[in-house]
Amino acid sequence: MPTPLIIDTDPGVDDAVAVVLALRSPEVDVRAVTVAFGNVALGFTLPNARKLLALAGRTDVPVAAGAARPLVYPQAEEAADWHGADGLGGRAASLLAEAPLDPRPAVDVMTEVLRHAAEPVTIASIGPLTNTALLLATHPELIGRIGRIVVMGGSLGAGNTTGAAEFNIYADPEAAHRVLTQPDVPVTLVPLDLTMRCAAPGPWIDALSAGSAIGAVLADILLAYRAAFRERFGRDAAALHDAVALLEAIVPGTLRTTPLPIRVACDHGPGRGATVPDGRPDAPGPMVHVALDADVDAVLEEIARRLRD
Ligand code: RIB
Ligand code: CA
Fold first, then answer.
1. pTM higher than 0.85 for the full model?
2. Rounded CA gap, 185 and 138, in Å?
């Protein structure tokens, strides 16, 4: 029986790979795609999500608009320099078909999925955690229906948006703290420490393009992101952060995790948005399962396999 899955996303180039990966994985049943601001504004991430569902032939999946801004403070910065002004590497306009918009707010769609699922639901949060935080805050009665939350975000080492903070967490630190300190829900955090190790090399992306029609579209969406990675890091590759997190949501246990309490810095100093582990033996919980290791080659091959025809 496939696991019910909600994907909360801010597409986003790596989100695009992640969403298509989930839709092509029989282990999960994508019950809803909920969308937030993030890489670019909601005015772009929302149609991008609709375009991705149409691209994957899944216009049946409910797609709904969530937060247009963070819970408390304005978003400090977007990531258009990585994802393009349109959020899909400049290719959004070429994706003409869009799945119909579910008119309900994202949290309402999430709660309906939770209420009607016959088994615990996995939530894969691969953008700012605002929608997920709102769900937890407004529907504590549904916490027990969440099987696990898999979050792409954070870093125990350097950030990618500031020296201390990774983008998804930095976009809404208050929301991230809310989710990462939620008791009674298994939370897996997939941080930059691992996703950067899983960066897909250029030949992997070329093989993606040759492997299926949808892979060719994804490789095209990845072009600018891949170029930005080469310019920034000096090698031909692309960090598919969200796809690594989705693979863990699809195949639990793919990534090797370490239980650590995580606190998010919500001050306005240089550390804002940092994900701070508490390694003390008697550290107060709740524990977050932090994914710090994996068979990187196996992860990349498994993502590639699912995107090939
Ligand atoms: O830091 C990487 C994360 O930020 C990914 O989810 C990417 O899509 C961006 O949202
Ligand atoms: Ca994302």
1. yes
2. 15
